[in-house]
Structure to design on (136 residues):
């Protein structure tokens, strides 16, 4: 049965700063993802705190929100069969040092915090994250 999904992808500040936008989008397109919507913006720290609310009890929460709001980001809605899991596979492990060869984080990530991309981790969070950036 077909399972076309939409997922939220973010090109994080470390990757935007290094002008990796087109290279990363090309990887998505070459892997069969359609970019349905996209925009470039800079978050306020309070926006990042809302976006990453699931992590509010973690020790890295404040640094993470400071980082995500430190410079421009590109947010995109990606669509494909099983897009949520396939985007996570294509991104690779959270820590670029542990990511598989060929994944975006292995190719471009600098560290566990500056890991170049975000991707929704479940259908529930994909909907919440897409609404956060696009349905207001
Ligand atoms: N993160 C961090 N330190 C950690 C774990 C995570 O800075 O020890 C950051 C990292 O940038 C990651 C984000 O917090 O992308 C969200 O963490 P999550 O566990 O959801 O990883 P992801 O879903 O991005 O792979
Ligand atoms: Mg996550």
């Amino acid at each position: 049965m077909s399972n076309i999904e939409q997922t939220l992808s973010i090109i994080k500040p470390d990757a935007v700063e290094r002008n990796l936008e087109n290279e990363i989008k090309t990887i998505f397109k070459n892997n069969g993802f359609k970019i349905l919507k996209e925009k470039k913006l800079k978050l306020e720290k309070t926006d990042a705190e809302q976006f990453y609310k699931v992590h509010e009890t973690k020790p890295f929460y404040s640094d993470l929100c400071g980082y995500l709001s430190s410079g421009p980001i590109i947010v995109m809605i990606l669509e494909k069969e099983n897009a949520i899991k396939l985007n996570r596979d294509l991104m690779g492990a959270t820590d670029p040092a542990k990511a598989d060869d060929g994944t975006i984080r292995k190719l471009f990530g600098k560290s566990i915090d500056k890991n170049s991309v975000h991707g929704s981790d479940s259908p529930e969070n994909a909907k919440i994250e897409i609404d956060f950036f696009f349905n207001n």
The pocket of uridine-5'-diphosphate (ligand 1) is lined by residues 55, 60, 64, 94, 112-113, 115, 118, 121 (CB under 6 Å).
